[in-house]
Specification:
Length: about 500
C-alpha cells in the first residue's frame, strides 16, 4: 500500500494509483516508454513530485499510431453496429461515474482545482459527454439528394469515420478535455491516439484502465504521456494520422497546423480566448457581480473562455467593480483537497510565473489593483490571488493577451451606441466566447449577434453542456467541439451516385 505522503487527505485507493508504476495504453496493453524514460508529475499545492509517468517519444508515437491504423483498417470498431458502439460508450460513462470521487481526487491533486468542484463539475460533465455521444452513434446519417441537372439517378451521401485521429489536450480540465475529444471520435467509429498534457496525466491514465474495462477493442484508443515537442509534435506530423484535433494555446495551434501539412491531415483547433463580459446598467446587478466574478475566477481563470475583460456601463461601474473585488478578496486560497478550498493553486510553476508576470506588467503600464495583486501571501505552491485591475487602456498586454489566470481587467463604457461596445468587445485577435448582462431582450440579442465569437452567454457565463457546440472565431480556432457539430470533425462525407438507366 502506498504511503499517503503525497497528501494525507487523499484516499488510500487514489494514493495507491498515484504511486503505481504508470504505463501508457498502446494496442490494448499497458506499456512503458520504449526508451524507458519517465518524467515527474508535481502537486501544484506544494511543488513536490508525486509520481513519475512514461515519457513517450517518436518511437512510442509510431507504435500507437500503427496500432490505431490497424484497428481502423482491420478491427471491429468502425464496422460494429452503431448501437453496439453506443452501448460501450454508455458503459464507459457508467464506469467513470462509479469512480467519481477517485477522479475528482486525481484532478484536484494533479491540476490543483478544488475537489468539490471537480466532483460536481469535471466528472459529471465527462460522464454526460460519453452518454450524449453514445446517443449520437445511431443518428449519424447521410441524405438522399435530388439532382438539379435532371437524368435518372439515385444519389445519396454516406457519413464515414475520418480514420486515425490524433488528439492533443491541455491541463486545465484534464479528464473533461479527454472526454470532449474521445467521445465524439469514438461515436463516429474513428480510432485514436490521445496525448495527455504533461502537467496532468493522472486522470487520463486512470481513464485508460476504464476504457479497457468497458470493452473498447484493442488499438482503438491509445493513450500517451509525454511532452509537447517529444510526443505531440511527431504525433501531429505522422503520415498515418488522418486528422489531428488539438486544444491548447494559439501559438502551439499554429505549429500543429504546420506539422499537419505534410500529409494534409484534417485539423481542428480549440485555442485561446480573451472573452468579454459586458454589463449594461439595467442588469440584475447582484447576479452580474457574482456571475462576472465566477466568469473569471472559475477554475482559477484557467479557462480558454474565461471572462477576462469586464466591460461595465459607467452608471454601475463602481458598484460592479466593488462587488467583484470584494468576492475576489474573500476567496479562500488552499490546496484543492482542503475542504475549505475555494481556489487552489495554478497548475505549475511556469503558469504561476506567467500570470504574476502579467499582473506586474499591468501595474507597470499604469493599471490600478482593485483586488489581489502579484503577491499571494501563501508560502508554498503556485497560488495567485484573484486579481481585479482597473485603469487599463485597450493596448495594454493585460487587455489584449490571454493571461490564463484569475486576473480580470474592468473597463467602464458610457456609449449610448451599442455598436461601439460591440466593436470594443471584438477588438482582440480572439473570438471564443462572451457574456452579456442585461434584462433588455433586444439589447441582449443585438449584442449576441454582433459579437464575433463561438459562444455568447446571456446573464450567465461558463455554462457547458454536451449539447452546446463550443469553439472559436478568428484566432480562437477551427471547428466546434460538442453538440451535433463536433461530428463534422470526425466524419467524411461520401457522395454516391447511381444511374437508374439500365
Ligand atoms: P498551455 O500553454 O496551456 O500549456 P500548450 O498549447 O503549450 O498549452 O499545450 C497544450 C498541449 O499541446 C499539451 O498536451 C502539450 O504537450 C502539447 N504541445 C505543446 N507543444 C506542442 C507541439 N509543438 N506539437 C504538438 N503538441 C504540443
Amino acid at each position: 500500500m502506498a504511503t499517503l505522503s503525497i497528501d494525507p487527505r487523499v484516499s488510500v485507493r487514489t494514493a495507491d494509483f498515484v504511486t503505481t508504476d504508470h504505463r501508457m495504453l498502446i494496442d490494448g496493453r499497458f506499456v512503458a516508454a520504449a526508451s524507458g524514460k519517465r518524467f515527474p508529475v508535481y502537486n501544484p499545492a506544494n511543488g513536490e513530485v508525486i509520481t513519475q509517468v512514461p515519457e513517450a517519444e517518436a518511437e512510442d508515437v509510431n507504435r500507437a499510431v500503427m496500432a490505431a491504423r490497424r484497428a481502423f483498417d482491420e478491427g471491429p470498431w468502425p464496422r460494429m453496429t452503431p448501437s453496439e458502439r453506443g452501448r460501450i460508450l454508455w458503459k464507459l460513462a457508467d464506469l467513470i461515474e462509479q469512480h467519481t470521487d477517485e477522479f475528482a481526487e486525481l484532478e484536484s491533486l494533479d491540476n490543483g482545482k478544488p475537489f468539490s468542484v471537480a466532483r460536481v463539475g469535471d466528472v459529471p460533465l465527462t460522464v454526460d459527454m460519453f452518454r450524449y455521444m453514445g446517443g449520437w452513434t445511431t443518428k449519424i446519417t447521410g441524405k438522399t439528394l435530388p439532382m438539379g441537372m435532371g437524368g435518372e439517378y439515385h444519389s445519396y451521401t454516406l457519413r464515414e469515420p475520418v480514420g486515425v485521429v490524433a488528439q492533443i489536450i491541455p491541463w486545465n480540465f484534464p479528464l473533461l478535455m479527454a472526454a470532449w475529444k474521445l467521445a465524439p471520435a469514438l461515436a463516429c467509429g474513428c480510432t485514436i491516439v490521445l496525448k495527455l498534457a504533461e502537467q496532468t496525466p493522472l486522470s487520463g491514465l486512470r481513464l485508460a484502465q476504464l476504457i479497457v474495462e468497458a470493452g473498447i477493442p484493442e488499438g482503438v484508443v491509445n493513450i500517451l504521456t509525454g511532452y509537447g515537442e517529444g510526443a505531440g509534435a511527431p504525433l501531429a506530423a505522422h503520415d498515418q494520422v488522418d486528422k489531428v484535433a488539438f486544444t491548447g494555446s494559439t501559438e502551439v495551434g499554429k505549429l500543429i497546423l504546420q506539422a499537419a501539412a505534410g500529409n494534409l491531415k484534417k485539423v481542428t483547433l480549440e485555442l485561446g480566448g480573451k472573452s468579454p463580459a459586458i454589463v449594461f446598467p439595467d442588469a440584475n446587478i447582484d447576479l452580474a457581480v457574482s456571475g462576472t466574478a465566477s466568469a473569471i475566477f472559475f477554475n482559477h481563470g484557467q479557462c480558454c473562455c474565461a471572462g477576462s475583460r469586464l466591460y461595465v456601463h459607467e452608471k454601475v461601474f463602481d458598484r460592479v467593480v466593488e462587488g467583484v473585488s470584494s468576492i475576489a478578496s474573500e476567496i479562500k486560497l488552499a490546496p484543492g483537497l482542503d475542504p475549505a478550498c475555494q481556489m487552489g493553486p495554478l497548475v505549475s510553476d511556469e503558469q504561476y510565473r506567467r500570470v504574476v508576470g502579467y499582473i506586474e506588467s499591468g501595474i507597470a503600464e499604469g493599471a490600478r489593483v482593485a483586488a489581489g495583486g502579484p503577491v499571494s501571501g501563501v508560502e508554498r505552491g503556485y497560488f495567485v490571488r484573484p486579481t481585479v485591475l482597473t485603469n487599463t487602456n485597450p493596448r495594454m498586454k493585460v487587455v489584449q493577451e490571454e493571461i490564463f489566470g484569475p486576473v480580470v481587467c474592468a473597463v467602464p463604457f458610457g456609449d449610448k451606441d451599442v455598436d461601439a461596445i460591440i466593436r470594443r468587445a471584438n477588438d482582440t485577435i480572439y473570438g471564443l466566447a462572451a457574456s452579456v448582462w442585461t434584462q433588455n431582450l433586444t439589447m441582449a440579442h443585438k449584442v449576441a449577434r454582433g459579437i464575433r465569437a463561438g459562444t455568447v452567454w446571456i446573464n450567465c457565463h461558463n455554462v457547458f453542456d454536451a449539447a452546446l457546440p463550443f469553439g472559436g472565431y478568428k484566432q480562437s480556432g477551427w471547428g466546434r467541439e460538442k453538440g451535433e457539430e463536433v461530428l463534422n470533425n470526425y466524419l467524411e462525407t461520401k457522395a454516391v451516385c447511381l444511374s437508374l438507366q439500365s
